[in-house]
């Protein structure tokens, strides 16, 4: 009777492993694939590669040697056998033997099938402040290896191999307040015209309103209008949610206002609490939450036309692809064209309103 065996990938298995990766992931992700033969674990069944875990080992700073869990994939015919969990379990002593002090992985917030495996091994989400404290000036190296500079809706899961104390991830009210403050501060350069284009006399967008204090409150108002209706909808469906902000999204949110004078909202999102759920059972509820959220944003824009709310609605309608997977658009996209058509018409109606406003 054939059994599954885990081993370090051999050089002659590289082509077979790459082919399996290509079958398991969307073609749009091919540009960020990596595979290092010496640090790739594979699962063999009857002599064939049926699953794999691509690891990236590198030095971050004097105290941290990182073992990054990159691409985890399983052949469709062999899913449901617990191979992903076995690969992660095998990777930890393997990485420790290579001198790693830390292990990390990045997982999209609506992917409980993946982060549940990490939770079982003692991983926890590492907030941005925790990343800065741990990696210091090596933070950008960590992001570079993880292709993290622009991803939105992904969270860094982290494990100290020495068993050090975990740092809590800010959630709910604390996360929302911090996010609202950050979004407000990053909207100020847009309001004040502090950007590279204005220095070159090329500024093309002006934000004005008789009540300046109201403009400053637009990010907070937009985030509230986006979040609270979804929360109420989920409560009526007895779905337990938790609000989390994103981390590397602020890299874009910092650059765009100062370079182009455009706002880039970082709304975070509401996520289903815990890991004992699946997209198969909750995809429709998440899509409906997103439609409620987008409808509320559209109404706010009609009542108070402003670029921040319109940009946020645009992101939540059209940006469903990597690295923007955290926006509402990706949840709506999963439920097909009925939901998507309504969402697109809603947003285009806001643009039409802008033309006649």
UniProtKB/TrEMBL annotation:
Segments traversing the membrane: 175-202, 214-236, 248-266, 310-327, 339-356
Organism in which the protein naturally occurs: bioreactor metagenome
Name the UniProt record assigns to this protein: N-acetyltransferase domain-containing protein
Gene Ontology molecular function: acyltransferase activity, transferring groups other than amino-acyl groups
Key words, A-Z: Membrane, Transmembrane, Transmembrane helix
Database matches in CDD domains: NAT_SF
N-acetyltransferase domain ranges (all copies): 4-157
């Amino acid at each position: 009777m054939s059994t599954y065996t885990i081993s370090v990938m051999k050089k002659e298995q590289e082509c077979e492993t790459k082919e399996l990766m290509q079958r398991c992931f969307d073609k749009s992700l091919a540009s960020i694939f990596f595979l290092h033969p010496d640090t790739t674990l594979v699962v063999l069944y009857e002599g064939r590669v049926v699953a794999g875990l691509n690891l990236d080992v590198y030095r971050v700073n004097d105290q941290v040697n990182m073992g990054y869990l990159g691409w985890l994939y399983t052949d469709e015919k062999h899913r449901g056998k617990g191979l992903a969990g076995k690969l992660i379990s095998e990777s930890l002593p393997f990485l420790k033997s290579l001198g790693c002090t830390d292990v990390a992985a990045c997982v999209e917030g609506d992917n409980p099938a993946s982060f549940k495996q990490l939770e079982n091994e003692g991983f926890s989400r590492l907030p941005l402040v925790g990343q800065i404290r741990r990696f210091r000036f090596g933070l950008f190296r960590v992001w570079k290896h993880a292709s993290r500079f622009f991803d939105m809706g992904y969270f860094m899961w982290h494990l100290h191999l020495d068993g050090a104390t975990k740092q809590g991830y800010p959630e709910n009210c604390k996360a929302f307040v911090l996010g609202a403050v950050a979004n407000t501060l990053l909207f100020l350069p847009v309001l004040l015209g502090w950007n590279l284009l204005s220095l070159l006399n090329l500024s093309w967008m002006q934000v004005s309103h008789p009540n300046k204090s109201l403009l400053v409150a637009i990010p907070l108002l937009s985030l509230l209008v986006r979040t609270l209706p979804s929360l109420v909808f989920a409560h009526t469906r007895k779905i337990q949610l938790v609000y989390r902000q994103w981390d590397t999204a602020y890299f874009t949110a910092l650059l765009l206002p100062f370079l182009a004078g455009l706002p880039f909202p970082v709304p975070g999102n509401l996520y289903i609490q815990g890991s004992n759920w699946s997209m198969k059972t909750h995809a429709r509820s998440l899509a409906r939450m997103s439609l409620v959220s987008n409808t509320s944003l559209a109404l706010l824009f009609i009542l108070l036309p402003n670029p921040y709310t319109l940009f946020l609605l645009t992101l939540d309608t059209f940006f469903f692809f990597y690295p923007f997977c955290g926006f509402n658009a990706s949840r709506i996209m999963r439920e097909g064209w009925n939901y998507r058509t309504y969402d697109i018409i809603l947003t285009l109606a806001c643009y039409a309103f802008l033309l006649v406003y």
